[in-house]
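Troubleshooting: if your tokenizer reports a length mismatch, compare your output against this known-good record of 213 residues.
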Amino acid sequence: FKGKTAVVTGASAGIGRATALALAKEGADVAVAARNQERLLQVKEEIEAMGRKAAAIVYDQTSDKSVWAMKDKALKAFGYIDILISNAAAAIKGRLEATTMDDWRFMVETNLLGYVRCIQAFLPHLLERRTGYIVTVSSIQALGFTGEAMNIPYITTKAGILGLTESLLGYLGPKGIKVSCLCPGGVTTDMAVNARYVGTEEEKTDMKAKDIE
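Known-good structure output:
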């Protein structure tokens, strides 16, 4: 990773933050991207304390314009990008019958199309250089490890990421771009705090309390 540059989305906390710091520790310069500016700046400072270059970029994964602007800022900061780690995601939890179509659209826009946006934004740059590495972050739940009945929209989008990644591998591999998908199991992150819970007020309170525990 020495001399490489990376972009990590969802890097203000959880897996994204840990990944960004790990890359910096191995010698990479890292652009961290997320919605929370305060936390991003903290991660940026930690990376710079390791002697690496860093850029903190606030963006909205559901917006085409914002994602392309994030790409432009990352390229301006480093000149080129070697590694794209698409990690930012959201969660909706609750009974399927309490889940609205707006909830589904939010999940697809964030977790699936959000990944597509990031890849589409950086793809011309990677193809021009004929090198690079794209890593997507799915979930062990997408592999059928557990059928979490209260997490169906999340699992659906994470399964879509698997299909996206496998297709990218076949298409981009011959063009010099490597592709991998990370499918982590249970990880302590802020996702439960920021998740959208659906159902009755009692159900939402109960689910959130159990997740945060």
